[in-house]
Amino acid sequence: MASGARYMASIVIYDALVIGGSYAGLTAALSLGRVGRHVLLIDSGKYRNERATGMHGIPTAEGVLPQAFRDKAKQELQTYPTVQTISAFIDKVQQHEGQFLAFKKDTVYRGRKLLLAAGVNDVLPPIPGFEEYWGRGIIHCIFCHGYEHRGKSFGALVTSPQYMAGALMAQKINPDITLFLSGIDLASLEAVVPNVSSALAKANIQVEERAIKSVTKDAQRDVFQLHLEDGTIVERGTLLYGRPTEQSTPFAEQLGVELDETNNIKTTSMFMTTNVKGVFAAGDCATMIKGVT
């Protein structure tokens, strides 16, 4: 039976392969199923939001666990007989004779079109303790998780000027804010973001230029202890980290799909086409503003 399943997978040609089983991939599979396309949704089981205790900002799904949301969406896909969902970790993808091939060891899945929707990985700073608390009090988005930490003393770690907006927007729910530049010189930041000093002063945001060397947590008091380079310890109730991301799979590179300067897949139309004919991209892997968490 197992060998037969592999054989069938190798000869069936789907209208579309969708790689990625979170919000973007599930939505694409649903839409394609509703117009009768034969779709294979391939879900690796690895998700960027797996540490999230609830989704926020999504009407009718407020506070829902991400896994519960995915399970319900997959159940709804069963309504459509032309949509198939599998759990598989794809090793590589390639284009061959007008088809797209997705390889899982000795199994090959074939499709006429390919949608990349496998998301991104967050690039975390090499600060001891940081990864341990990522998604567990250290948050990535003020809209997604800031409200749950309202009223706490707030820290924002900024490694690039483009990630400063979150600190400024947090003021209404976290009036006690410290901006950690972690070694970035404020004068250099001013050269990139004009009038940033006055904007921070107006928002009553304190600026800390000393680098964070490690992060610990006082669980009893529910506060983070940020150990600075000179030995000073600064306590904050929560920490926002505006972070760069990277593609979670090598598939764009394998196919020659272009990325932009922030490592997102470039799409060229409202239909999320890429520079490679027949390859589309959707979700976090193809936009600077990341989606459902």
From TrEMBL:
Keywords: Flavoprotein, Membrane, Oxidoreductase, Transmembrane, Transmembrane helix. It comes from the Eukaryota. One of its GO terms (molecular function) is oxidoreductase activity. InterPro entries: FAD/NAD-bd_sf, FAD/NAD-binding_dom, Ferredoxin-NADP_redctase_2. SUPFAM superfamilies: FAD/NAD(P)-binding domain. Pfam families: Pyr_redox_2. Residues 14-288 form the FAD/NAD(P)-binding domain. The chain crosses the membrane at residues 12-32. GO terms for biological process: cellular response to toxic substance. Belongs to the class-II pyridine nucleotide-disulfide oxidoreductase family. This is FAD/NAD(P)-binding domain-containing protein. It comes from Bifiguratus adelaidae.
